[in-house]
Amino acid sequence: MTIQQILLVEDDKTIALGLCYSLEEEGYGVTVCHDAACALTEIRGRQFDLAILDVSLPGGNGYDLCRTIKAGSDTPVIFLTVLGEECNVVMGLDMGADDYIAKPFRLRELLSRVRTVLRRVGGGEKDEISIGSLTIYAKQARVTKHGSEVPLTALEYQLLLTLAINRGQLLSRNRLLEDIWDIGGDFVNDNTLTVYIKRLREKIEDDPQNPVFIRTIRGLGYRMGE
């Protein structure tokens, strides 16, 4: 199995060290740069599967690095930006960045976004996913059942999408917690996950007490069936 390679460009060495450790624990290969010159050398010398770029860097900025990356490849880019700097977000996305995350961020959220971007560019995330009577429209972030729209919260949708993309695979509770986060800012813990699974079943199952879509594998986790 080929190890996916990530270029991490972050001038704060403490943040970079923590991110590098966490990404390597997830099985990625990580090359760390703390300034623009180092990053340019790496970009010109080899190919990466993903680049995570801080916006403000010694000797340059993340925007210039993104332009260089996109000029020579389709490597996806995630920007790290300061919370509230909306202009930074717009500029980054306009030049072809695939996602952004504002500092301070939750590590779980960043890892989830890394997986999502890599899955998307690798073709693992389809625009439309059909499972039995359910259809998930990924680009529109909406779900229908028998053709009628199912109203879901952002977190319920993210939970369903994660299960659907990994249909047939056993997903542990820890894995699901890593792939979802509460956009409203509330911490998603193990008990909260149980509540969201219950709510999601009430919306998509014909009989929530005997689910066919989200099946519990006792003591291990959940699996998307049907």
Structural description of this entry:
There is one protein chain. This protein has helices spanning 13-25, 36-45, 62-72, 86-94, 107-121, 154-165, 173-179, 190-204; strands spanning 5-9, 29-33, 50-54, 56-57, 60-61, 77-82, 99-103, 128-131, 134-137, 142-145, 148-150, 171-172, 214-217, 221-224. With 226 residues, the protein is α/β, with parallel strands linked by helices. The protein folds into two domains: 5-121, 3-Layer(aba) Sandwich (Rossmann fold), CATH 3.40.50.2300; 128-224, Winged helix-like DNA-binding domain superfamily/Winged helix DNA-binding domain (Arc Repressor Mutant, subunit A), CATH 1.10.10.10. Strands 2-1-3-6-7 form a five-stranded parallel β-sheet, with helices on both faces. Strands 8-9-10-11 form a four-stranded antiparallel β-sheet, covered by helices on one side. A three-stranded antiparallel β-sheet has the order 12-14-13. Helix 6 packs across helix 8 (190-204). The longest helix has 15 residues, at 107-121. 27% of the residues are buried.
Topology, element by element:
Blueprint: E1 5-9, H1 13-25, E2 29-33, H2 36-45, E3 50-54, E4 56-57, E5 60-61, H3 62-72, E6 77-82, H4 86-94, E7 99-103, H5 107-121, E8 128-131, E9 134-137, E10 142-145, E11 148-150, H6 154-165, E12 171-172, H7 173-179, H8 190-204, E13 214-217, E14 221-224
Helix pairs in contact: 2-3, 6-8
